[in-house]
Amino acid sequence: MDYGLGVRLDRPFQQAVADVTAALEEQGFGVLTTVDVRATLHEKLGEELEDYLILGACNPSLAHRALLADRRIGLLLPCNVVVRRDGGATVVEAVDPQTLVTLAGSGGGLAEVADEAARRLSAALASLSA
Question: Of 48, 54, 90, 112, which cross-links 35 as Cys (Cβ 3.0–4.6 Å)?
């Protein structure tokens, strides 16, 4: 099962992070959290990893609609977007909101919310490749 949407970019990591954040904002998402996985693993375990961030992205309108459909959906929010180095490229991947519907069920209009979230996340990712 493929649970992500993604693009591969030929640009520096920090520039990609800024571009991803801007692309998400254009689609109505804000970044609520940033987890620096590389720094955390180095600090806590002494392990080395390539640049790797997890951005917790939220579109308030979509989150509200999802919570109205299913209060427990908060367990699966926000939408995680990963920005990571892979060799000389930067990979950007977002959780496919349809995966959330697979886990939670499509009742109460949740499928429609996931469809719109997927459309917006796909548009954000596509704009990075343009």
Answer: 54
Per residue in 106-128, pLDDT (tens digit) is: 667 899 999 999 999 999 999 99
DSSP 8-state code for residue 29: -
Tokens describing residue 104: 């939670």
Cβ neighbors of 82 (< 8 A, separation 6 or more) are 52, 53, 54, 55, 91, 92, 93, 94
Query: What pTM does this model have?
Result: 0.93
C-alpha to C-alpha distance for 55 and 121, rounded to whole angstroms: 13
Cβ–Cβ < 8 Å for 7, 92: yes
> What is the rounded distance in angstroms from the CA atom of residue 112 to the CA atom of residue 130?
27
Q: What is the dihedral of CA 13, 18, 21, 23, to 10 degrees?
A: -100
